[in-house]
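Risk register update: the risk of archive-format incompatibility is retired. Evidence:
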Amino acid sequence: MLQQFRKESALITVLGFIMISSIVDLFSDLSHGANNSHLIKEALVVLLAIISLLWIFRSMRRQTLKLSALKQELKNSKNPPHPAEEYVLSARQRLSEVIARQFNDWKMTSSEKEIGMLLLKGLSLKEIAAIRNTLEKTVRQQASTIYRKANVSGRHAFAAWFIEDFL
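Archived output:
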C-alpha cells in the first residue's frame, strides 16, 4: 500500500505540473491570438490532467477507507458484540498460547509471528500488507518462509496444522 501511495503521489505531481503548465500556456496562447484548434488541444490536455487527478484522488480515498474499515474490523474482532462464554475464552487463550509456543519452536521472527497470526485469522496477503504498511510481495515472501518453517504446503495446510484434530 505504501508503494502504491508513492506511485500515486508521483503521478499527482507529474499531472499537476502538466496541468499548470498547460493552463499557463493556454492563457499565453489566448493573449497572443493562437488559432482555435491549438487552443482546443491545449484545453483537452488540461481536461485530461484534471480527470486523471480526480480519478487518482478517488482511488486513494477508496484505498484509505478500505484500510480504515479493515483495521476497524480487526479491532471489533477483539471485542465482539456478544461476549463469549468463559470456556470459549479459556480455549482461545490456550490455543493462542499453543500457537505462540509453536511459532517459537519453528524459530519465527516477530514479523513472521505477526503475519502468521493474521494468516490464521483469515486475512489476505493484500490486507496484511495494507495493515503492516508494507509491500504485498514482502508479505508473500514472509508467508512462504512461514510455510517452509512449518513444513506445510500453503495457507490452508498452515491453518489445518493447528485445528486438524478439531474436525
